[in-house]
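Objective 1b: paired records.
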Amino acid sequence: MRRLFPVILTALFFSTGPSGEIYEAFPDNVSPDDKYLFYSHGYIVEGDNPRPVETRFGWGVYDFPAIKTALASEDYHLIAYHRPENTDPFDYAQELNLQVRQLVDAGVPAAHITIMGFSRGAFITGVASGKLADLNINTVILAGCGGLGSAKYSDIRVYGHVLSVYEKSDRAGSCKKLRENSTQLTSFTEIEINTGLDHGAFYQPLTDWLGPTRQWINTKMNIQ
């Protein structure tokens, strides 16, 4: 059994810090002194069920609430929407782009904003990154390059600081092609994990992906 990220400890940080709220809608009040992480979930969660079960490939439960709890931190606000069924990824990416710009317009430094997504959420995140070319934000792509960087979407570019994390046994694979296409990146880091769990490695808050991802986010957003 894979070891899960220490959710209880993270939840304590979330509940006791001066910031660290989890938002399911864009916050009414934005402070320029705060930091913000957007997390976009995978396709299977679209709809009403926050814990759907994938049975075709045996990936099991996608535990969206547990992932949100594990991602929460006293050092930044987490914005994680539950998208409705059949959300258009390009429309959603445009909305994400506008919300990031709303933060920047409120005085939040671009370096203090990270957009992050898994699978369909990673595709949305990548498209949004392309719309934010003029801002040096942070972008995290989790198992998203089955679409990003493919021949069908070879026109998509990402910008700023980019982290790709993918599972060795997952056909989504490396973001090497996306990196080659994105010639104006500020930085690019890629991490391969090896859980043997295919796409399902990101269905739970496993330390394999969550640990290095949190470390990268903390570094880029200058969190001590």
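Objective 1b, second protein:
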Amino acid sequence: MQRRHFLTAAAGAALAMPAIRPASAQATPIRFTLDWALQGNHGMWALAEDKGIFRENGLSVRMDRGFGSGDTAVKVAAGAYDIGFTDISTAVKLNAENPDKRLVSIYQVFDRTAAAVITTKRSGITSLQGLAGKKLGAPEGEASRMIFPAFARAANIPIGNIQWTSMASNLRDTMLAQGQVDAVTGFLFTTYFNLVGVGIKEEDIVAWPYAENGLDLYGSAVVARADWLEKNPQAAAAFVKSSILGLRALLADVPAGMAALKKREPLFDDKLEARRFAMTRDRCILTPNVKQNGFGYLDMARAETLVKVNAEAYGIQNPPAAASMFTDKFLPPATERQV
């Protein structure tokens, strides 16, 4: 079967979800990697395992921590993992350069990107337009920095005299806290709580998420290689269904989700991560779009915008078609995805 047969050509296309293997059959092993070390939102998969949701849907899942969305995308594309959770923007350049290892988003967990401009009150910046002439910091090549020009156009930010300072990702938030840069770009829920961790008062943190200020892009997603999906449609559908059920369980009982993660990592800060998850839930997961259309709803126009923005940011001359890297084929019926 040609790859295009399982890819969504347009939003709302009527596609039959593959039948899910019954729980009584032999469980299908799945190698799954996260985007980072355990954080609050990962509780959806911890609960899916602990509550037997994966098992009931015919899966035996091994979940490993990640080392950044870019690393996760590369490892899934290389075949080291069957499925990954990664910022879908990372797949645009990867797919353009490696069409034979193409990644496909099969469930958009984050309906909105977490990318944001973050600063503190000590900088004196009170609006996005106030970034003009300021010193911004981010690792060189980091996604939120790369797509900042597109965000600046959408938010009418004059960028001509903005100065950029590059640093290692683990130094970004410390440098902001110390006043070595005026503002940074990065994931809101990461930088926000890192600043709290180094002593910045929450009332002194100021942030402008891209998605809420003109550049409404998709965020992190469940992805798999196109050829793996061709061979394992039942497993893919079962994983997506289990993920949504795990998310429902997490939304219904956040403390249980944090406890499930702490069981896996004794140093896990359950109180902080519950707060991080609350921010992620409210800003990236339970968006107005999801509340109206259900978990994982795919808007192909937004998918096309994401490809266009990333192609421009990375100078990609042959960007992949949005229909080649987004599909809703593996989602449960709409009635099972309502919030």
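The CA atoms of residues 57 and 166 lie 45 Å apart. Confidence is low (pLDDT under 50) at residues 1-24.
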